[in-house]
Design goal:
This protein is of the alpha+beta class. Among the domains are: 73 residues, Trypsin-like serine proteases (Thrombin, subunit H, Beta Barrel); 125 residues, Yope Regulator, Chain: A (2-Layer Sandwich), CATH 3.30.1460.10. The chain has a 6-stranded antiparallel barrel with strand order 1-2-3-6-5-4. It has a 6-stranded antiparallel barrel with strand order 7-8-9-12-11-10. A hairpin with a 4-residue loop joins strand 2 and strand 3. Helix 4 packs across helix 7. The longest helix is centred in the C-terminal third of the chain and has 26 residues.
Length: 371
């Protein structure tokens, strides 16, 4: 199974919008990224991030509410390996499968399970039922067999169920790819009423399906997201600080900023009015930890408005603000202070105290991909 997990490490892609986060996977032969429709719903563009290309905005080029599928524009040639759809195989109860994705914003996870039902019916569609753990963020990721072939698209879970997940069988995906390929690059949508595909040059005036007259909405006709209230203040602040706001969005009231070698997660909790900025720095070393702890304790006494903490092996520098005290000017000063100190202390902790740069710890990488 390790070879399969390693193969998909660069195939599986993180997806983020102002409303949600999820997973997609790159199909080289089809030249597109596959995900769930509910992951990218109400967005004409989404942020993608992969192992072999930089974070970027891409267009949503096809929506399919019937099968809960969506296709995204693929980035330019990146060297992503080709994976195959398991069209010539038939799954049976008891077969081993792997669900791969980015749940809860984690970079990469793979969980192993067993198929328990190949014909679970929901609203006239048949789903693969299995016990490979699916969590928020797994939606749109591939379900893979032991040979590394895609057998389904991870779609939903049983609420309060114990690891009961459902994936759309690959047959539906292949059928949709074949229909969409006839569009020759045009943007399209499947009509939720008659199930025919409608494209930008075939849609009737005022966005009606030419086959049945039902109302449809093409992906490029979605209104652009506009933040309001505190979210707008935060985004104005990030924009003035020189960061790309669209690329920084990580779901509702969440943003991710890269400052030098540090990654800063900004979150706004509307119920409490609390805004947090957590800069994830380097990792704790395995030896001579005491001098590093002493340094962090001294800095907690000396640095005004910021606090160091440890979570697992992560060293985190945090800022807390209440929304009633936030405006662009005050926010700029406070977050610029966090950004500058995060980048500075990341270097100091590695160069003087032996901390480990993020991404250089093999143990952590293995742990995230265990099945």
């Amino acid at each position: 199974m390790k070879e399969v997990i390693d193969l998909y490490r660069s195939v599986v892609i993180q997806i983020a919008t102002p409303y949600s986060t999820g997973t997609g996977f790159y199909l080289k032969e089809a030249g597109l990224i596959v995900t769930n429709e509910h992951v990218v719903r109400d967005n004409k563009e989404v942020v993608i991030d992969g192992e072999l290309f930089e974070k970027q905005l891409v267009r949503v080029i096809f929506l399919d509410p019937k099968y809960d599928l969506a296709f995204l524009e693929a980035p330019e040639e990146t060297g992503v390996p080709e994976v195959q759809l398991a069209m010539k195989k038939k799954l049976a109860e008891g077969d081993q499968i792997i669900a791969i994705g980015h749940p809860f914003g984690l970079r990469y996870t793979a969980t192993q399970g067993i198929v328990s039902n190949t014909m679970h019916e929901v609203s006239g569609l048949f789903y693969l039922q299995h016990d490979a753990a699916l969590n928020p963020g797994n939606s749109g990721g591939p379900l893979v067999d032991k040979d590394g072939h895609v057998v389904g698209v991870n779609t939903f879970i049983m609420r309060e169920g114990d690891n009961i997940g459902f994936s759309l069988p690959v047959l539906y995906l292949q059928e949709t790819i074949e229909e969409f390929s006839q569009a020759s690059g045009r943007i399209g949508v499947r009509c939720s009423s008659c199930a025919n595909l409608v494209f930008e040059d075939t849609v009737e005036q005022d966005n009606y399906c030419p086959f049945c007259g039902a109302k449809v909405q093409l992906p490029d006709q979605v209104e652009a997201y506009e933040p309001v209230g505190v979210s707008k203040t935060i985004e104005d602040m990030l924009d003035q600080a020189g960061h790309d706001v669209q690329l920084s969005r990580r779901g509702p009231n969440n943003w991710e900023i890269l400052q030098g070698s540090a990654k800063i997660n900004i979150s706004y909790y509307e119920k409490t009015g609390l805004i947090t900025g957590d800069a994830y720095l380097c990792l704790l070393p395995k030896e001579n930890i005491k001098p590093l702890y002493e340094y962090l304790l001294r800095q907690n006494y000396e640095i005004e408005g910021l606090t160091f903490s440890i979570k697992g092996q992560d060293i985190i520098l945090s800022l807390l603000i209440y929304d009633r005290y936030l405006n662009v000017d005050t926010g700029m000063k406070l977050f610029q202070h966090l950004f500058e100190k995060a980048d500075y202390h990341d270097n100091v902790l590695v160069e003087k105290y032996g901390a480990i740069w993020k991404g250089n710890d093999d143990g952590i990488a293995r742990k995230e991909s265990e099945v």
